[in-house]
Automatic annotation (TrEMBL):
One of its GO terms (molecular function) is four-way junction DNA binding. The lineage of its organism: Eukaryota, Fungi, Dikarya, Basidiomycota, Agaricomycotina. It comes from Tricholomella constricta. GO terms for biological process: DNA strand invasion; double-strand break repair via homologous recombination. One of its GO terms (cellular component) is Rad51B-Rad51C-Rad51D-XRCC2 complex. This is DNA recombination and repair protein Rad51-like C-terminal domain-containing protein.
Length: 374
């Protein structure tokens, strides 16, 4: 692949002065190696809706450390532990307009995942697990992420810079970032993630799988879907032959969710407002994609691939988060152009769970060095 915009590497990202230690492996080499050497057998016992019973998930995940979000999750689901507001296999969609804070909420949750639970007698509140990020729009800022990670550790620990840096480095070693160039590449990579873990993270449990953003290839995927629908209208075309790339992604995610039980985080654009909604909510523009709330469904195509997929194989949302900037409190926009030494932004999150009428609100304050909650 010669496209300069396409990064075929999966990186373990570490602080700037250690960049020469970055682990790098091409996707082509990854897929070849896992197909030839794979010896992984998923340990899956049973699945009921979004709640799993997995043989290897005796360890709990943890809290989101956003008080209102944790309260909502505890109130709307049967949790496996009072110490964790999240269950293995939860699926969370994070939707919002540009610069609404989606990636920063993702940073916050990823930091929860990869940091240790404590250091000596200090409670850090981390999950001490690995995290995998699919950076679809190539916007994951490792410099920014490391700054936020060290900012949180400094707030919680104080102490020496060397101890904070050492914990940050060990935490970052649990992070993997892939940058597929299309939804098809994304689906293939997810489908081989189990083999990748058995080879490269054999002693780590993957706590989070994140895709930022599900909408990154919306327009080429939509064009492909239109071609499928046009071909399907032909009487000579075999039915149920073509599946859109996004459907392959969702099927691969559901398979890995069942076998490994990570929390799945999906960021998504907010394009079309739900009419007359208060608070402001967005319709789902992706198809096929989970849309469990009234008035959020996209128009169903004439050739609906979901009709041909067994219901138990479809990915389902555990909860949905809609983000907005709180302009009454914000002093800057949450964008890559912001000077993080000067600006502070306030983010409002609205949390909904399918089949539950309650909507909870939470606030985030994003500063140059930290993401503050509650």
């Amino acid at each position: 692949m010669t496209d300069k915009h396409c990064n075929w590497h999966a990186n373990v990202l570490v602080p700037i002065h250690m960049l020469h230690h970055i682990y790098s492996d091409s996707l082509a080499h990854l897929l070849t190696s896992v197909l030839s050497k794979s010896h992984f057998t998923p340990v899956f016992l049973s699945s009921h809706s979004s709640h799993l019973t997995l043989a290897f998930t005796a360890s709990v995940l943890g809290l989101t450390h956003i008080r209102a979000l944790d309260a909502h999750l505890f109130s709307t689901a049967k949790n496996s532990s009072s110490l964790s507001s999240l269950n293995h296999g939860d699926v969370i969609e994070i939707q919002g307009a540009p610069s609404s804070g989606k990636t920063h909420l993702l940073y916050h949750l990823l930091i929860n995942c990869i940091t240790p639970s404590g250091h000596h007698s200090i409670n850090l509140g981390g999950w001490d697990k690995a995290a995998v990020v699919f950076d679809m729009d190539h916007s994951f800022d490792i410099v920014r992420f490391n700054r936020l990670l060290q900012g949180r550790l400094t707030r919680l620990m104080g102490g020496s810079a060397s101890a904070i840096e050492a914990i940050a480095q060990r935490s970052l070693e649990k992070l993997r970032i892939f940058r597929p160039c299309s939804s098809s590449q994304l689906a293939v990579t997810i489908s081989h993630l189990a083999e990748y873990q058995s080879t490269h993270l054999p002693n780590e449990e993957i706590g989070i799988v994140a895709i930022d953003s599900m909408s990154a290839h919306y327009w080429p995927d939509r064009f492909f879907a239109e071609q499928i629908r046009t071909a399907a209208a032909s009487p000579e075309h075999p039915r149920n032959v073509d599946i859109p790339p996004l459907q392959h992604v969702l099927l691969a995610l559901e398979s890995f969710r069942r076998s490994h039980g990570p929390v799945i985080l999906l960021t998504n654009w907010g394009l079309h407002l739900v009419s007359n909604s208060n608070p402001i909510l967005y319709r789902q523009h992706l198809h096929p994609f989970p849309a469990p709330f009234p008035h959020s469904h996209p128009p169903t195509p004439h050739h609906d691939v979901n009709a041909t997929i067994p219901q138990e194989n479809l990915l389902r949302l555990t909860c949905h988060i809609t983000l907005h900037q709180d302009m009454s409190r914000a002093s800057g926009a949450v964008s890559k152009e912001v000077s993080w030494d000067m600006e502070e932004s306030a983010i409002v999150g609205l949390v909904r769970t399918p089949n539950h009428p309650t909507v909870h609100k939470f606030l985030l304050s994003i500063t140059g060095d930290d993401i503050l909650t509650n």
